[in-house]
Amino acid sequence: MSRSPLIAVGAVLVVLGLIGFAIPMFTTQETTELARIGELKLQATETTSHIIPPLLSGGALVLGVVLIGAGLTLKK
What we know:
There is one protein chain. By secondary structure, the chain is an alpha+beta fold. The chain has one domain. It is 53% helix and 33% strand. The protein has 2 helices and 2 strands. It has helices at 3-22, 54-73, and strands at residues 25-37, 40-51. A two-stranded antiparallel sheet has the order 1-2. Helix 1 packs antiparallel against helix 2.
């Protein structure tokens, strides 16, 4: 594998790890249609919270730094 893809993948992992530390929890919403009678619709919105474990964020950050280091030390 050449240098450039390793550095690019490493940089993406570092950014994802930092985002995981900065925003450890996010929520998503899903709207489902419960019933429909003619023009009348009955819908429900469900909110779900997702937590990013600090170990996962740290692992992505460390792996990204290792890949960047490996990409910089490889010979062309």
